[in-house]
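Q: Structure tokens for this one, please.
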Amino acid sequence: MAISNIDCHWFEFMHLRAATSGLTKRCIMKFKFLAAFLLGSACIGGAAFAQSADDKKWISQCLVDNQGAKASAAVVAAYCGCMNNKMSDNETRSITEWEKANPNARRACERESGWN
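A: Here is the predicted structure, written as tokens:
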């Protein structure tokens, strides 16, 4: 019983300290952001893992086609994945060719990937 009271008092002390310290608040927010980022990355990585060899080929070609883009590699990868997901599995055109004929899908994927 005495140990649990000490643990509770320690937790209350640390919570009070965190509530009064701006530096600690920033650290907590950075930790929460990092945790959310890692969780999101794991989810995206899991979705990417489920892609077929054909999907990977088209996405790789899209990445090459957009190599000179003024966007980060992560944004371009998200864009290419989005465009690939919007395309039919029976599509024979590359993502780059398909996006020219489907400007609404292109704009939606630009917004979704953060390209703008």
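A few notes: The two ends are 58 Å apart (CA to CA). The CA atoms of residues 44 and 65 lie 22 Å apart.
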